[in-house]
Write a structure and sequence with these properties.
The structure holds 2 protein chains of 2 kinds.
Chain A lengths: L2 H16 L4 E2 L2 H5 L15 E3 L4 H14 L3 E4 L16 E4 L6 E5 L4 E4 L5 H8 L4 E2 L12 H7 L6 H4 L6 E7 L5 E5 L10 H5 L8 E8 L1 E2 L3 E9 L2 H13 L6 E6 H11 L9 E9 L1 H17 L4 E5 L2 H21 L2 E4 L2 E2 L5 H15 L3 E6 L4 E8 L6 H18 L18 H4 L2 H14 L24 E2 L3 H4 L7
Parallel strand pairs in A: 2-4, 3-4
Antiparallel strand pairs in A: 1-2, 5-6, 6-10, 7-11, 8-9, 8-10, 12-14, 12-15, 13-14, 13-18, 16-19, 16-20, 17-19, 18-19
Helix pairs in contact in A: 1-3, 8-10, 9-11, 12-13
Chain B lengths: L5 H9 L4 E3 L5 E2 L2 E2 L2 E3 L4 H13 L4 E4 L16 E4 L6 E4 L4 E5 L4 H10 L2 E2 L11 H7 L6 H4 L2 H4 E7 L5 E5 L12 H4 L8 E8 L1 E2 L3 E9 L2 H13 L6 E6 L5 E9 L1 H14 L4 E3 L16 E6 L5 H14 L5 E5 L4 E6 L5 H14 L4 E6 L2 H5 L11 H11 L15
Parallel strand pairs in B: 4-6, 5-6
Antiparallel strand pairs in B: 1-4, 2-3, 7-8, 8-12, 9-13, 10-11, 10-12, 14-16, 14-17, 15-16, 15-19, 18-20, 18-21, 19-20
Helix pairs in contact in B: 8-10, 10-11
The chains are: A alpha+beta, B alpha+beta.
The structure holds flavin-adenine dinucleotide (FAD).
Chain lengths: 489, 414
């Protein structure tokens, strides 16, 4: 039997497990799922299933395992590394019908949720009790907690509060062999190897998370946000170093350069100070007395480093105004460029100045504009490489600049991805960061979970087949951003 | 097949590191080792492990040996690899990151960082520990409440595999999602998945001010109410520690760190929810230490936050009924605590306390961290039920196909 015959033969069994309306075979319906947040990687899934319970997920995976059919988990499809790219010869398992918040347990400070629950809905459910769920990717209105688990997602506030992995105490997973396994729960420190910690960030290659127990945090007593405008990136960068060097740990420190400011201004009229070559947004939260004294300190340090205008926000409305430009920056570059590539790389904070300088040099040499918007506190760069896709060869040149930026990150001792993951998109950059022995150890770990190699194959670890291909560029604005459902970071 | 004689074996190993015959002191939870080697650096340790693999020797990594008796007794221990010389500190102060060799004394690391106004936010639970030992046992002290357990602060690791091949994961930046985070499974694995050669940690600046608010009560219910009130407050403590010695009242210590003005106001807020609170400006020297003496049986239990005091009380009462005064100490703020059962308590009484602890909890776990060899010989159930054991076994077999690395020390006989 050919691979597609094998897949077709499974459909009746899949229907028996998920119900008739839980299995999509129609081409137009399957087409909806052909890509995730990176639309230049697309593949029509062989079959799409929409299970409603962990047992159904396990049943589907068991069937795949019995027949050696690959499967790909998918949450909301906002991933930016093509981790949820489907397989023509496989089953796409979508968690969008598993959106129950099972429990909000305030005395124990935990929430138990199904994997398809939107990140922000956890906070919405906890907020009336004065609690929130800390990881806040900017896609939080629509991305799923299961997807966050798979990508170990962070957000602007991860500088202080950490990533998804620091907030999960329990996971129920379906292993690639179709078994339901409970790891941990409401208590910390599940006994045995920390499989929860290793599963988080595994991009759907070790199985599917079907129930998730997360920590809820008490809302901070006070939040204050500062906007500081500088002549140039150097001064802004020095201010970042000064703040961190002074021992202040803000909830977030974000920076934008002149081109990113120009784009944000064109898109949302954020009214950042005129003539700014860089703006810095610093947010402090915590007990009121701490926030107030640190706020004064941060303000002074910014002024010392040459901030020519400082604005502060103490209430939610004012904060939204300050954040508006920052949060719209990615989408906004669509206003000043017909096409762009979003890069995600990390450098040690002390290398920020040098790497930004080299990115500027790359840009000048190639004639390709690069706008910089980034999480300055943890050195996570998100350069936006701008080009005109109507111009012959421009896409390739932009792609070369984007790849060269990753090289700079690695050279500086950083990482090829701070939050978007490896997926398919960066799989061929993995050997730039890890040696063959490192990759072999990771591969052994993967095979311990998935001896058949059916869980999201060809993602995360490089294969010879894939690594001849080059990734492409995004055109225009991401559909979620265009529809106002998500803000790009 | 014929095994090489002891002396040929020793000669083969000695090509890579000084080797000596083990003495009576070279044991782990009662299991005697045969040989002890002390490689000069990670490259030598790698070659030594390669040789041990060829000779099919069981291997036990050892730092300063302060927690070598933790876990279950290894089934066999042909060779102890002493990591003392795998030391060194590479501190990137501006990046708030440090890499340290496994054998580096933890206290030395803390000293070097303190000189730069920084710290690894992990308390030294057992004095004399090495960096590798802290990570391999996963011991995390009071400050884990704010900063997470030690594994949360590890951002990169290099591990020597069963065949000596070095493999790294993570990196030198805090934010990094490239590849599997293999350090997570190594942390707390008691050396059953490899020999940790070096670890990179994220650091924090030492906060300028510190305040401790302490209160005592004889009533576990009252202390439980304090802990609940602290959770409802917005004071953001760095640590909330319970200390309930075998005899005497329970005490709760709340550590606040931050700016001078900030900690003063927060201490007042904390004092308002505790009865008869006293404010101090230092933590006691032993506050991160596990309870009890070195020969006591040391248990660790993890429960949901609201269950901490009820669980401690149940254990305390059951101990008293069995004639053993059980001391409980640890992070009430995270729900992870130690309990010490006095040395000399009959093995079946210890086992009964352990089962009572396990059976009485709606969620969570209770394990034996350290026990006298006699208790192991009597069949003490060190781990209890461990969900996910089949996956753990597969991970173990992937890393250590012949099960030669600290065999049997871990859950499920791994
Ligand atoms: C506008 C925009 C802004 C973004 N901002 C951020 C940001 O600030 N920070 C950040 O970290 N990321 C950000 N992202 C990336 C993305 O939103 C996150 O990676 C998110 O966690 C993906 O969730 P998802 O539900 O969309 O997952 P999907 O895209 O559906 O899947 C992502 C990966 O997870 C796997 N997966 C999905 N569900 C499960 C499951 N239940 N079990 C196992 N594996 C599963 C998939 O196989 C795939 O490999 C952004 C994306 C967009 C489009």
């Amino acid at each position: 039997m050919s691979q597609s015959d094998t897949l077709h033969a499974l459909v009746p069994d899949l229907r028996a497990i998920c119900g008739d309306d839980g299995v999509l075979t129609d081409t137009a319906q399957r087409r909806t799922y052909e890509s995730d947040g990176i639309t230049y990687h697309a593949e029509l899934p062989g079959v799409v299933v929409l299970p409603t319970t962990p047992e159904q997920v396990a049943g589907v995976v068991r069937l795949c395992a019995e027949h050696g059919v690959p499967f790909v988990p998918r949450g909301s499809g906002t991933g930016l590394s093509a981790g949820a790219l489907p397989r023509a010869d496989g089953v796409l398992i979508v968690t969008s019908r598993m959106r129950r918040i099972i429990e909000i347990d305030i005395p124990n400070e935990r929430a138990v949720v199904e994997p398809g629950v939107f990140n922000l809905d956890v906070t919405r459910a906890a907020a009336p009790h004065g609690y929130y769920y800390a990881p806040d990717p900017s896609s939080q209105q629509v991305c799923s907690v299961g997807g966050n688990i798979a990508e170990n997602s962070g957000g602007a506030h991860c500088l202080k509060y950490g990533f998804t992995v620091n907030h999960v105490t329990g996971l129920q997973i379906v292993t690639p062999q179709g078994e339901l396994v409970e790891l941990g729960g409401k208590a910390a420190d599940a006994p045995g190897y920390d499989l929860i910690g290793a599963f988080i960030g595994s991009e759907g290659t070790l199985g599917i998370a079907t129930r998730i127990t997360v920590r809820l945090l008490r809302s901070p007593q006070k939040v204050r946000t500062l906007l500081a405008a500088f002549d140039g990136m150097d001064a802004g960068g020095r201010a970042v170093s000064a703040v961190i060097g002074a021992g202040v740990l803000p909830a977030a420190i974000e920076m934008m350069d002149a081109l990113a400011i120009e784009a944000a201004e064109a898109a949302v009229a954020c009214r950042y100070p005129e003539g700014a070559g860089a703006v810095l947004i610093v947010e402090l939260d915590g007990p009121a007395a701490e926030v107030d004294s640190q706020f004064e300190q941060v303000t002074r340090l910014c002024r010392d480093e040459g901030a020519f205008e400082l604005r502060s926000a103490d209430d939610p409305a004012e904060r939204t105004t300050i954040w508006k430009g920052r949060k719209s920056a990615f989408a906004a570059v669509g206003r000043i460029s017909p096409a762009y590539i979003v890069q995600d790389g990390v450098v040690p904070r002390t290398a920020l100045g040098e790497v930004l300088g080299r990115i500027a040099a790359l840009s000048a040499e190639s004639g390709i504009r690069v706008a910089n918007v980034f999480h300055a506190g943890d050195g996570n760069l998100h350069p936006l490489v701008l080009f005109d896709d109507a111009e012959p060869g421009a896409g390739d040149r932009a792609e070369a600049v984007s790849a060269a930026i990753l090289d700079l990150c690695i050279e500086a001792g950083g990482s090829i991805t701070g939050e978007h993951g490896v997926g398919v998109d960066k799989v061929c950059h993995m050997p730039d960061m890890f040696g063959p022995d490192d990759l072999a150890a990771m591969d052994r770990f993967r095979r311990a979970f998935d001896p058949q190699g059916i869980a999201n194959p060809e993602k995360l670890l490089p294969t010879p087949r894939l690594c001849g291909e080059r990734p492409g560029a995004r055109k225009g604005v991401h559909p979620l951003v265009a529809s106002g459902e998500a803000e790009l970071f | 097949m014929a095994y090489p004689s002891e002396s040929t074996e020793q000669a083969a190993l000695a090509a890579h590191a000084p080797v000596r015959a083990a003495t009576a002191a070279d044991t782990a939870a009662g299991t005697a080792a045969r040989l002890v080697a002390a490689p000069a650096d990670a490259a030598a340790a790698s070659a030594l492990l390669g040789e041990a693999a060829r000779l099919r020797l069981s291997v036990l990594p050892r730092g300063n040996g302060t927690k070598i008796d933790w876990g279950a007794p290894p089934r066999s221990c042909d060779l102890i690899i002493d990591t003392a010389a795998l030391s060194g500190i590479d501190h990137a102060a501006g990046d708030l990151v440090v890499r340290a060799g496994a054998g580096t004394p933890f206290a030395e690391l803390r000293r070097v960082l303190a000189d730069a106004g920084q710290r690894l936010s992990v308390d030294e639970v057992v004095p004399g520990s090495t960096v590798g030992g802290v990570v391999a046992t996963g011991v995390s002290g009071p400050r884990r409440m704010q900063h997470g357990p030690v594994r949360d602060l590890v951002i990169g690791m290099t591990v020597l595999g069963h065949d000596g091949v070095a493999a790294s994961s993570g990196g030198r930046v805090v934010k990094n999602v490239a590849g599997y985070d293999l350090a997570k499974v190594q942390a707390g694995a008691l050396g059953t998945l490899g020999l940790i050669a070096s670890v990179t940690f994220r650091l924090h600046p030492v906060p300028p001010a510190l305040r401790v608010v302490r209160a005592e009560s004889d009533d576990p219910g009252a202390v439980g109410a304090w802990a609940a009130a602290l959770r409802r407050s917005q004071v953001m403590p760095t640590a909330v520690e319970l200390d309930w010695p075998g005899g005497g009242p329970l005490s709760l210590r709340v550590l606040l760190e931050g700016t001078g003005q900030g900690v003063a106001e927060r201490a007042d807020a904390v004092a308002a929810v505790l009865d008869g609170a006293k404010t101090e400006d230092a933590v006691p020297a032993d506050w991160a230490r596990p309870p009890g003496g070195p020969d006591d049986t040391l248990l660790e239990f993890a429960v949901p936050l609201a269950e901490v005091l009820p669980t401690a009380a149940r254990l305390h009462d059951a101990g008293a009924a069995a004639g053993a005064s059980v001391a409980v100490k640890g992070s009430a703020g995270c729900g992870v605590l130690y309990a010490a059962v006095p040395a000399g308590t009959a093995p079946d009484a210890v086992q009964r306390l352990l089962l009572l602890l396990r059976d009485g909890m709606a969620a969570g776990s209770a394990t034996v961290r350290r026990a006298h060899p006699d208790l192991h010989a009597a069949g003490l159930e060190v781990w209890g039920e461990v969900p996910g054991l089949a996956l753990m076994r597969a991970v173990k077999s992937g890393c250590d196909p012949d099960h030669r690395l600290s065999p049997g020390r871990f859950a499920g006989g791994l």
